[in-house]
Amino acid sequence: xxxxxxxxxxxxxxxxxxxxxxxxxxxxxxxxxxxxxxxxxxxxxxxxxxxxxxxxxxxxxxxxxxxxxxxxxxxxxxxxxxxxxxxxxxxxxxxxxxxxxxxxxxxxxxxxxxxxxxxxxxxxxxxxxxxxxxxxxxxxxxxxxxxxxxxxxxxxxxxxxxxxxxxxxxxxxxxxxxxxxxxxxxxxxxxxxxxxxxxxxxxxxxxxxxxxxxxxxxxxxxxxxxxxxxxxxxxxxxxxxxxxxxxxxxxxxxxxxxxxxxxxxxxxxxxxxxxxxxxxxxxxxxxxxxxxxxxxxxxxxxxxxxxxxxxxxxxxxxxxxxxxxxxxxxxxxxxxxxxxxxxxxxxxxxxxxxxxxxxxxxxxxxxxxxxxxxxxxx
Length: 378
Description:
The chain is mostly beta strands. It folds into two domains: about 5-195, no CATH class; about 230-375, Jelly Rolls. Helix content is about 5%, strand content about 45%. It is built from five helices and 25 strands. It has helices spanning about 5-10, 20, 80-85, 145, 160-165, and strands spanning about 40-50, 55-65, 65-75, 95-105, 110-120, 125-130, 155, 175-180, 185, 190, 195, 205, 220, 225, 240-245, 260-270, 275-285, 290-295, 300-305, 310-315, 325-330, 335-345, 350, 355-360, 370-375. Strands 1, 2, 3, 4, 5, 6, 7, 8, 11 and 14 form a ten-stranded mixed beta sheet that branches.
């Protein structure tokens, strides 16, 4: 949760511009959390992380003013799973399943498949996993909360998760995937081919080998990673690059060559929340080319930090480029299209929205280096 002292600094005129920076992960109303239907329960939410349709909260539960147990809450809004279900001619119903794998710092991992129930308060499917459901001696749970507790309930306990929940501050990472329920409710027939939202075709890059374009450098994960670490301090030159031969270029492109190799240092990937996919540093050696390509459903920003080169942008993508030369480029997987040829140097920015086209070439005698962010458009 945000420090309440932030409320005071917001009232100062000089800080108005920073509201967007300090805005909390979510404004929490008591009814958002399951047990607060009874005033006997209070939550201390210590960390919140979100990625696409997912929110994960962890913290403490208090009963009658006394610490009761630690908890983990999963919320999922299911827009991707809606599509997976729709192509199977179904609608998702009141319950879904979540694959949850806890990755504590100094303990063995633990995983389970857990039911999520739709909650209109947050317009999402959710579950709370508590360290224990047993009340203290001579204390009873409130009946308003007791009916949510138990196996596959909205408040549940997973014995295998207890070691991680007991030291919840050390629970820094977990992996998630979601699927349809086993049965189509309210009709009751078995679903034999459930749709999954396991971060569709998501992978990450790692320098397992310096062989250009080796499949060994692509690691398929098929899940979402939620990371509770609060900060990263990195040096890009301490990250080995992954090398790519004729990246995003078609067979037959005149610029293809056996030595057209570029390097990418993948600095941050699965660590991101929201819809960000990666932040990396790209080096294009003298005379080399990254193929011109189109983005569909994603957006990317290039910021040139070193060297000079030529970037390509689709004609009419940016009206400000009208005065630059028009050339034909062979767009990866699509074929020839007219593009604008743009000179770039340190400080130049190429920002490409979904549907836009970009590529870059280094005709100079010095390396061309840029950093890039990529994220899903929605």
